[in-house]
TrEMBL record:
Region (Disordered): 136-170, 544-600
Ranges annotated as spanning the membrane: 71-91
PANTHER family the UniProt entry points to: ALKALINE CERAMIDASE-RELATED (PTHR12956), TRNA (MET) CYTIDINE ACETYLTRANSFERASE-RELATED (PTHR12956:SF61)
Pfam families, per database record: TOD1_MUCI70
Lineage, opening ranks: Eukaryota, Viridiplantae, Streptophyta, Embryophyta, Tracheophyta
Bias (Basic residues): 566-589
UniProt keyword ATP-binding, yes or no: no
Domain TOD1/MUCI70 glycosyltransferase-like: 222-535
Keywords: Membrane, Transmembrane, Transmembrane helix
Name of this chain's protein: TOD1/MUCI70 glycosyltransferase-like domain-containing protein
Length: 600
């Protein structure tokens, strides 16, 4: 190659010597007083004799100085950067669409809105106050919390500040918690997945428990209707267990007053579980009447699920929090035949409560009784956590209560659906999946439409969803939450057992009367503390796993001690007849012997 040297070179690999640094192998480099190396004067003709040589010169210099491997890695990095940039542009294009219905299609727990427009958030000002003063910060279907804040939905802006309890830990240890960045486009796993949640240690969570009950807005005294001989006077559904409330009684139940009497199941007796339908043994009733700060409850009816044992439960929770599992006689018989249930009526942490004289033929509807009416079965309990029978609890109950109730100054928490936000869309999905009779779903939706139900839109902000994922309910037992679940149960009793369809109707009617709201947290946060299993019928129809093939273990051969000595000796030259039968050369000769290559 012709051309002048651009800088002094070192003695190895022809690399350029940096200005001002001497080479130990060659100290005869001359520097001028400005600290710059003296380069040989070279004309432009000497550098490149033609355009073809110039084109060949540049790749040669890159390969010479960087090496072929480094050049290949550099090209791969440039290609990856290009793909990442194109993917980012695609994501930004999806986020900037003005269609509300499209934005409600998916949940993003990573705060894309704030990331794409950081000027929306004022540093040092609580995000809930900014939303109250500027509703444009919130977009339905997108998690609207800043990345440096926790992502649970803020309480309704109408909630009175005087009812809020100052958290004992100030500033909160999870104040600066943020979701990790989202995965690159195209690398996301399909389906809903759990996301990180910041929990306090169990000791700090217990210390965060409020010393007094939360204030119940307006409603202070709630009693329940008793009717030993209920009569159905209207065409709409209902049951003897629910008491057949009329449409007028239903309307009056949403007129919130200081003292109220409403239908709330168990209408045939003064003590729930005692000759009221959904009957419970006397020994169990005495235990359910005891005072508890916190309980965890679940149910399995119709032998529909397999009992899931909680995990990661602290010693304090094991000692102080009872775990109750309600089952019917069918499930009890199966457990006894399979030797799962012992004489103490315990399965691990679960205390089994057998229910007799169940009021409904539908096991799913029977399960709504303990799910929504726990305050009636446990009259002396402050907090409860309900989980469906198919779920396994994997986080301590104290940590769950602190995260979703006490930290948020909330008294009712439920996760929103991971995909759907609109009741009309949820109804169509239930019909498509065969969850319930299609005509019954249509009748329920038509009734709600006649009362003014409309598709979800931005007018409902800051409410971000009308559809819950109702398999987990975290609540405090105070009059307003007791009323909410009573009226919610009445809708399930009157219409279909799909409680997702009636949730928003009951919530919105109560919120229109009093300053109260529901903490609807992200579904991915729910999946952080419960793990969903399959129903029993699905497990029984699944193909069994393939049997494990036992590998034959051969005895170990001791190493040959003469190997090292044989290597030291120079082997004598072998003849053709002395070649080893197992050598590569022998196999090659057999495969391609000259004598066998006969031409015809």
């Amino acid at each position: 190659m012709t051309g002048g040297s651009l800088a002094p070179r070192t003695g190895s690999y022809g690399s350029l010597q940096l200005p001002g640094i001497f080479n130990n192998n060659n100290n005869n480099i001359n520097f001028n007083y400005n600290g710059k190396p003296i380069a040989r004067k070279t004309s432009a003709k000497m550098l490149f004799s033609g355009p073809r040589e110039k084109d060949r010169f540049l790749p040669f210099v890159c390969c010479l100085f960087l090496g072929r491997r480094k050049v290949a890695m550099l090209l791969l990095c440039v290609l990856a950067l290009l793909v990442f940039t194109l993917g980012s542009l695609t994501v930004n294009k999806e986020n900037t669409t003005p269609n509300v219905n499209q934005r409600m299609g998916n949940i993003d727990p990573y705060g894309k809105q704030v990331a794409s427009n950081p000027t929306l958030v004022t540093p040092g000002v609580p995000y809930g106050k900014q939303v109250a003063s500027n509703p444009a910060l919130v977009t339905p279907g997108v998690d609207n919390m800043p990345k440096y804040r926790n992502s649970s939905m803020q309480n309704d802006k109408r909630k009175s500040n005087k009812n809020k309890v100052q958290h004992p830990l100030s500033p909160h240890p999870c104040e600066s918690f943020a979701f990790p960045p989202p995965p690159p486009p195209g690398f996301r796993r399909p389906g809903p997945r759990p996301c990180p949640v910041c929990y306090l240690p169990v000791e700090q969570a217990i210390a965060s428990m409020p010393s007094s009950p939360s204030a119940s807005p307006v409603l202070q005294n709630l009693t329940y209707v008793l009717d030993e001989n209920p009569v159905n006077t209207e065409s709409h559904g209902g049951s003897d267990f629910g008491g057949y409330p009329s449409l007028k009684q239903r309307k009056d139940s949403y007129d919130i007053k200081e003292s109220m009497t409403v239908h709330c199941g168990f209408v045939k007796g003064s003590t729930p579980g005692r000759r009221t339908g959904f009957d419970i043994d006397e020994s169990d009733l005495k235990q359910l009447d005891q005072f508890h700060e916190v309980i965890v409850a679940s149910a399995i009816f119709g032998n529909y699920d397999v009992v899931q044992q909680p995990q990661n439960i602290s010693a304090a929770a094991t000692k102080n929090i009872p775990f109750y599992m309600f089952i019917d006689e069918e499930t009890e018989a199966y457990m006894k035949n399979s030797s799962v249930l012992d004489s103490n009526k315990r399965i691990g942490l679960w205390r089994i409560i057998v229910v007799h004289n169940i009021p409904y033929s539908d096991a799913r509807r029977n399960g709504k009784i303990p799910k929504l009416l726990l305050h009636r079965i446990f009259p002396n309990v402050r907090y409860s956590i309900w989980i469906d029978g198919k779920l396994k609890l994997v986080v301590d109950p104290y940590q769950i209560l602190e995260r979703f109730l006490w930290r948020q100054n909330a008294n009712f928490a439920i996760s929103r659906h991971y995909k759907r936000f609109d009741v009309f869309v949820e109804a169509e999905a239930n019909k498509a999946a065969g969850k319930y009779d299609n005509s019954s779903i249509d009748n329920q939706i038509e009734f709600y439409k006649s009362e003014g139900l409309t598709p979800y839109s931005e007018t409902k902000l800051p409410i971000t969803s009308d559809v819950p994922e109702g398999c987990v309910i975290v609540r405090e037992h105070i009059p307003i939450t007791n009323l909410f679940t009573c009226l919610w149960f009445n809708e399930v009793d009157r219409f279909t057992a799909r409680d997702q369809l009636s949730f928003s109707t009951v919530r919105d009617k109560i919120m229109a009367k009093v300053s109260w709201s529901v903490n609807m947290f992200l579904d991915c946060e729910r999946r952080n503390f419960v793990i969903q299993a399959y129903h029993r019928d699905l497990l029984e129809h699944m193909a069994p796993p393939p049997p494990r093939v036992a590998r034959t273990q051969y005895p170990r051969v001791p190493p040959d001690t003469n190997v090292g000595n044989s290597r030291k000796k120079s082997p004598a030259r072998r003849g053709k007849g002395d070649k080893k039968s197992g050598s590569k050369r022998h196999r090659k000769i057999v495969a391609g012997n000259k004598d066998n290559n006969i031409s015809f």
